[in-house]
Design brief:
about 230 residues; Glutaredoxin; seven-stranded mixed beta sheet; 9 strands; globular; Thioredoxin-like_sf; Redoxin; Peroxiredoxin
């Protein structure tokens, strides 16, 4: 498969390229081409499962899978975690009604135009570079989960401890390789055209670690042609 790369995130009206990835919750491969002409699909592209924000984003999306399926929309969740580690996680945290795929090389993320940000000492160039002081100045506010607003590094450590998520050497390698990967969701119609999207690229960082509102996604899904 020829690899595609976008200079910016795909937007409504763009045609999504085909990507072929290892399926997590069944054997073999999964390709976007599989859905074309068959069903619409919500494609969620996330960092590795070592990221507690992504785990929550994935869980929130999975809760909508049955509602989307009623509208003829499949759900595809893509993580940067290598296949065997991902299969182990989803064995204990299954995603009913969701197809999951492993993308340790961020092929799909690049194809959809989601950059993997580089952490720097003092240079900010959103969304490609971000300095550690800028990250440390950010505050993640998750009432009910975090005791107070925290910088992303401390928040991640706190949530992983709270979740009982034990980092493995494989998780460490994924975090080193894709810890700055920006995430997004893309709703594709039966022809593979983007009809709605949400990405962390938006808002110069204000969308980081956010989860799109369920009603916004369901509204967009309701407007898809059948």
């Amino acid at each position: 498969m020829a690899e595609h790369a976008m200079e910016r995130p795909l937007r409504p009206g763009d045609r999504a390229p085909n990507v072929v990835l290892d399926a997590i919750n069944h054997g073999g491969k999964v390709a976007l081409e599989d859905f074309r002409g068959q069903s619409a699909v919500l494609v969620g592209l996330y960092r590795g499962l070592q990221c507690p924000f992504c785990r929550r984003h994935i869980a929130a999306t999975a809760e909508l899978a049955s509602s989307l399926h009623e509208k003829g929309i499949d759900s595809l969740t893509v993580v940067n975690t290598p296949i065997e580690r991902a299969r182990l996680y989803f064995r204990y945290h299954p995603l009913p009604g969701v197809i999951a795929a492993s993308d340790p090389d961020s092929i799909a993320h690049r194809a959809f135009g989601l950059p993997n940000m580089q952490f720097t000492e003092d240079e900010d160039q959103w969304p490609y570079k971000i300095s550690v002081p800028t990250v440390m100045a950010m505050r993640v506010d998750m009432p009910g989960e975090l005791p107070e607003p925290m910088n992303p590094f401390d928040a991640s450590t706190f949530l992983n401890r709270h979740d009982g998520y034990e980092m493995t050497p494989e998780d460490d390698r994924t975090d080193e390789r894709a810890g700055g990967q920006l995430v997004g969701e893309f709703l594709l119609d039966r022809d593979g055209i983007v009809r709605w999207s949400f990405t962390e690229v938006e808002g110069d960082g204000s969308s980081m670690f956010a989860i799109p509102k369920a009603e916004e996604l369901i509204s967009a899904a309701s407007r898809l042609p059948h």
